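Final report, Chapter 2: Outcomes

The project's central promise was a pipeline that accepts a single protein chain and returns its three-dimensional structure in a standardized token representation, suitable for archiving and comparison. That pipeline is now operational. To close this chapter, we reproduce one record exactly as it appears in the project archive, with the input sequence first and the structure output second.
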Amino acid sequence: MIVRRESIASSRSGRYSDFMSTIQEIEDAIRRLPEDDLAALRAWFAEFDAAAWDRQFERDVAEGRLDALADEALQDAREGRCTDL
């Protein structure tokens, strides 16, 4: 499991060591999981992560962060620079 510890440390406001032990405990517990449980965890996490990504995408759309990309894509379509899938 890869964890960006620098960003975790800065976001936890001085509670880095508390969070680190938690992350390490989780990593250790995952390493000890039986194969079936590990597969179930992967499936759960994939859904969890996808839902988080969807929420972020919805926020980005609502805040207009993707408007320029949409405008560019529409312009490309109008000018014939797109192909049907």
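Archive annotation: Helices lie at 5-11, 16-31, 35-62, 67-78.
This record, like all others produced under the grant, will remain available to the consortium after the project formally closes.
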